Amino acid sequence: MGKHSTAIVPVPSLQKRSAFREFLYEMNKNKVLYLMCLPGLLKLILFNYIPLGGIWIAFTDYKVTDGIFGSKFVGLRNFKLFFGTGAMAWIVTWNTLVLNFWGIIFGTLMQITIAIFMNEIRNQAFKKITQALMFFPYFLSWVVVGAIVYALFSTDVGVVNRLLKSLGSEPVRWYTETQYWKPILVICNVWKWSGYSSIIYMAAMVNFDTSFYEAAEVDGASKWQQIRYMTIPLLKPTVVMLTLLSIGRIFFGDFGMVYGVVGSNSLLLKATTVIDTYVYQSMLSLGFSYSSAVGLWQSVMSFILILGSNKLAKKVNDGIALF
Question: Per-residue pLDDT tens for 54-107?
Fold first, then answer.
């Protein structure tokens, strides 16, 4: 009995070949667009992915002469030192979280308030002047902000202490009292960034359907009722998205703010040192390995937090999550 042999077609190979041809066709069709993306892609690879190899430093006793991968492997020794008894791990983490948490809360409230206020102004000349004043703090460096803070809170010549003296109160030695500086730093952060960051909320409100507000006016809704029951709910997706992005960086303190406003004041270190400034300080005194371990802890916790907050946002409303 003769049997006809049947050739077996290698389907996976054909699929790979077909996918490769589609890739080549796509690249050829949109080559100009891909060339435009190339500088950004190169920057991403050079400054975000290649430096990931430096994570290995956190697990070694790094010596410049031995290189990253030639230095002695010490396992988790640097992390044990960071989290050991009497170490700064929990102090700097707490400072970073507190400053960023209240910065997010009050910053978001201020940004929304500014955006709604600007949206309700009808006099264009007054609106432009107000916008310029709102954006002005953003263009000041933290060094200038630090000088303003010093002019306000200096023990001898500060405006606040002079006001306290005129009211019959004792002056406060602000730069030696730790309990005041977390609120001061939060206020500085909100004051500097709120005007600039409110642009996103103003841009979101431009796209709102004006027919809703016209219908609300016809029904007799006051301006406050329109803001409360229409503007704020419509801003919810934008608020959630920006909050998620902020939470992703909640473990990253503002290095410039802390150093610009507080400087290297040793009396305030425990109250104002955040992870970023501690990484810098530890790099100078304890070396690259220890500071790399601190930086890795910071990045891992931020990654976990952004995943957790995004999952929470999905449970509340799947459409407002980042991914």
Answer: 888 989 888 888 888 888 888 888 888 888 856 688 888 899 999 999 999 999
Give the span between the Cα atoms of 135 and 111, in whole angstroms: 12
Packed helices 11-29 and 31-44: angle between N→C axes, nearest 10 degrees:
100
Which residues are registered as beta bridge partners of 72?
Answer: 61
Query: Distance (Å, rounded) from C-alpha 121 to C-alpha 130?
Result: 10
CB 253 within 8 A of CB 189: no
Provide the whole-model pTM: 0.80
For 207-232, the pLDDT digits (tens) are 888 888 888 888 888 888 888 888 88
How far apart CA 17 and CA 39 sit, in angstroms, is 29
d(Cα 196, Cα 319) in Å, to the nearest integer?
26
Report yes or no: 149 and 184 within 8 Å, Cβ to Cβ. yes
| CA nearest neighbour of 255 among 56, 43, 95 | 95
Nearest residue to 276 via CA among 264, 301, 259: 259
Burial profile 16-54: b = 16 or more Cβ within 10 angstroms, e = fewer: eeeeeeeeeeeeeeeeeeeeeeeeeeeeeeeeeeeeeee
Q: Is 57 in contact with 68 (CB distance < 8 Å)? A: yes
Q: CA-CA distance, 161 to 315, in Å (whole number)?
A: 50
Whether the CB-CB separation of 186 and 103 falls below 8 Å is answered with yes
Tokens of 149: 């803070």
Separation CA 208–CA 212 (nearest Å)? 8
Q: Measured between alpha carbons, how far is 267 from 175 in angstroms, rounded to an integer?
A: 8
Measured between alpha carbons, how far is 213 from 120 in angstroms, rounded to an integer?
12
Element (H, E) at 91: helix 89-120
